[in-house]
Amino acid sequence: MNLFEFQLPLVVLLPFFGALLAFYSARYNRLAAAWVSSFITLLSLASIAPAIGTVFSGSNLIQSWPWLESIGLYFSFRLDGLSLLFSLLILIIGLLVIIYARWYLAAKDNMGRFFAYLLMFMGSMLGIVLSENLIQLVIFWELTSISSFLLISYWQHRKDARQGARMALTVTAAGGLALLGSVLIIGEIIGSYQLSDVLANGELIRQHRLYPIALILLLLAVFTKSAQFPFHFWLPHAMAAPTPVSAYLHSATMVKAGIFLLARFFPVFSGTEMWTWLVGGAGLITLLIGAYTALFKHDLKALLAYSTISHLGLITLLFGFGTQTAAVAAIFHIINHATFKASLFMVAGIIDHETGTRDMRKLNGLIKYMPHTAALAIIASLAMAGVPLLNGFLSKEMFFAEAVLMSDSNRFAWLVPLLVTIGGILSVAYSLRFVHDVFFNGEPIGLSHTPHEPPRRMKVPIDLLVITCLAVGIFPAFTIEPILNIAVSATLQHTVPEYSLALWHGLTLPLLMSAAALSLGVLVYFNRNGLIANYERHQHINAKHYYLKTIKRLLKLANAISQLFDKGSLQNATAWVIFSALLLGSFGFINYSGSLFGTRNYLPVDAVSLMIAGLLMIAAILTVAWCKKRLQSLISLGVVGLVSALVFVKFSAPDLALTQLSVEVVTIILLLLALYFLPASAPRETSRIRLWRDAILAIASGLAVTLLTLMVLSRDFDSISDFFIANSVSAGGGSNVVNVILVDFRGFDTLGEIVVLALAGLGIYALLHNAKLTPIQKFNTDEIAHPVILQTFSRLMLPLMLLVAAYIFLRGHNLPGGGFIAGLIASVALILMYLANGIAWTSQRLQLNMQIVIALGLLSASATGLAAMLVGYPFLTSAFSHIHWPLVGEFEIASAIAFDLGVFLVVVGASVLSLVQLGQLNQHPAVKEQQ
Amino acid sequence: MEVLLALSIGVMTASGVFLILRPRTFAVVLGLTLLAYAVNLFLFAMGRLQIGLPAVIDAQQSGYTDPLPQALVLTAIVIAFGMTAFLIVLAIKARSELGNDHVDGLHLAADEEEQRHHPR
């Protein structure tokens, strides 16, 4: 087996596995979680590394396995230039964030939980960028929403964290739903969900009449995830997350997922007027709103959040331009923004950590206390402002150049260079504020202690990021050009267009725009006090307020709709269900044109059958007539059950008759016990009208069922059972076809059914264990004298009954019997002991924990199935051979018998557990304690 | 014979439906049990009625009854028991928690009313 065949899924799945490992390792050592996380991230990097050469040589790596082929779902991964770039960003910045977080988290924070969430997020993010199948991509997309929800709400005790997390989840998950819609439409148009097919058929999609809907849905997903106007409001509230989370999710990865989709689908969706207006428009508005608001925020992280919004807008705008060189600039800026913004978030975290505040009105002159941190912050901020020799300058320059190129594309486009220059000015101003207001500008105000540098190693990640900013800014051709080229060619699905990463292009308009932005930005910053005062005088639109209002209205609407149907009355709801069933059924009757009954000959009626059927009907009617007197009603229900057993006997179903008979006994005892806890009678409370309504519904249902049964029974049919009858002995090794079907042909069904039974038993245990219920009538199985004759007989009978159960069990494969029936007989035997001798007496002698019996049963049944898998057969394949037993004779031992044993144990466990729990309720507390 | 069985199933269904529309939990549990019996018989009858033809492979036998509905009904009987047991315990628990056995947890039964006024 070549491990490289699984390389890409490994990259994605390793972090998920690591999440579990990190969570558990933190129980033993706090820091182990950080070590494990770093190790897993390195492992993921190592698994992607061998493929890097392939991608650089210009070919894509696709690894695919069919999953649900019929709906076009494949488990498939793709590595090309774009996904490689994003994977490296996710993994490398992830690793740095892990190192940083190890120092950031306080001693009382749960490390295991943090790193588990972080790795889960990393895995989901890698899943998005490496998915070849679009449905699989949507799954990972939703996983990022969920894991980012967990990360934002990491400090669960804080209300703002919980609220921010909920808001982020609502907005981004809604976007995820839109993405699913878009993907389904794309799949409908192309007939495939594989990315390769989609990328090859862009023309087909753009020409299709569903293109606008697919585009709008896609953009809803992009705009919600990447915080584009008007969905940008969730990002500032997500700042309640621990700072490493913000550095990772809200600079480098999660918010870039939307941008990634834009890049991925760029060759498919771009190039239309609609694309330019929607993507470009949203990008431009977001760029300006973000930059403008960032300037006025006093909170360091809020400034960074709005700046992130603004930069995401910039990238979106570039994609909106729709030209190939604009896409180059966009991808370049994705890398640059990730490096400088992640380092700035980490700096903000350090400042918060060391001073206890993030308020820039208090933070001043920190350069004296933390010069190293200050140097890092200054370089990163200058990169953010777009100062020459730093990476931000290069991509911003390209951005300005694209804006200038756009300016003659239509009547309003001359505004674009002007507006983006304003954005540039604001960006310089807020970057300067981050530097000047925090590290210079006098002395800190009101700090509880003197700040100092953080631990050396906490700054290592920032050092590396800042060095990257410088290296890319000074030597772009050596550092970034190779990977940028392959990412661009993968994005465009085309050769890389001419572009230049040179620092100096001559005295061009973009350079003048940069110069204007820098000088005017400085001017704006030093006039900030007036501007801030002006900003704070005005009422601003509070997006959170509208969001909460919308959510409230939605909930109200949902409630109103539910209440139309559900008025809080079970009777009403049941009546509606039955009425609708009748209504829908009657459509079938009305639309059916053939003759009502078929031509099959009926069996002749004999006198005994007539009497038995009469008894059945009378008992059923009496159950209803006596429904206010509960004991009598229950007795007649018992008669119905017993008579149905007779019906099974008559019509050649000995297995069913045995089952019905034993179930009946257990059911009636159970219901009798329950009567002690329910009122003995029911009051008159139903109005005459309602009685009539119920009677009409009941009679209509009865008639309908009678008619339906007769229609079926009067016709012949082709049974599919010939297969089972023909193969029962040869394939299943048993001649009782019913039992072979249960334990072999349809064994998986049976496994499901015993699980249900086990759950019912355990559910009853959960409901009644240690519950204090007051019986309506006092009754104690241990206080009243037990009838001596019954007691004696029950003790005598027990071994006999168990022997019968064993006999029925063993012969079940060949003659009527089997695990279900034997289990019920054994339960009846045990229950008889409890009834005759009292629970205390029996429990002392039968120290068998019924929960364990249930568990053993399920274990035995599933282990049988798994054993078959171990030998290489499908789940629950049975094997058998014949052995000769003394006295019993020729006997088949099939692996199905282990399965049937599981069935037996579950049936015994569940039924005895239920009855004993119910019986025990009556017991004296003192007796209970004795046990 | 088929008519007789169809009628019996019909009467059982009607009684079951009427009972599950009652306002008290015990009647609803009985109704569901009755309905389960009816459904079991109905499913069983889908294999058509055969007399004296068990589904056990035997060289001397000429024909077999349909084993598939039997296998389905066999588990259905046991599952129905599990459901009945769970429901009745739920009903007991509800009465103890809510103080009455109305399906909506509303009114007091007569003997509960009495118990409330004259606690034993």
UniProtKB/TrEMBL annotation, chain A:
Superkingdom of source: Bacteria
Membrane-traversing stretches: 6-26, 38-62, 82-102, 114-131, 137-155, 167-190, 210-235, 247-269, 275-296, 303-321, 327-351, 372-394, 414-432, 464-484, 504-526, 573-592, 607-627, 634-651, 657-679, 691-713, 750-768, 788-809, 815-836, 848-873, 893-916
Domain NADH-Ubiquinone oxidoreductase (complex I) chain 5 N-terminal: from-to ranges: 69-115
Boundaries of every MrpA C-terminal/MbhE domain copy: 690-769
UniProt keyword annotation of Cell membrane present: yes
Membrane topology: Multi-pass membrane protein
Ranges of residues in domain NADH:quinone oxidoreductase/Mrp antiporter transmembrane: 131-408
Keywords: Antiport, Cell membrane, Ion transport, Membrane, Transmembrane, Transmembrane helix, Transport
Residue ranges of domain Na+/H+ antiporter MnhB subunit-related protein in the record: 789-912
PANTHER family: NA(+)/H(+) ANTIPORTER SUBUNIT (PTHR43373), NA(+)_H(+) ANTIPORTER SUBUNIT A (PTHR43373:SF1)
Protein name: Monovalent cation/H+ antiporter subunit A
Gene source species: Thiomicrorhabdus marina
From TrEMBL, chain B:
Record-given protein name: Na+/H+ antiporter subunit C
Chief location category: membrane
Membrane topology classification: Multi-pass membrane protein
Keywords recorded for this protein, A-Z: Cell membrane, Membrane, Transmembrane, Transmembrane helix
InterPro entries in UniProt: CPA3_antiporter_subunitC, NUOK/Mnh_C1-like
Family in the record: Belongs to the CPA3 antiporters (TC 2.A.63) subunit C family.
Transmembrane segments: 6-21, 28-51, 71-92
Localization, UniProt: Cell membrane
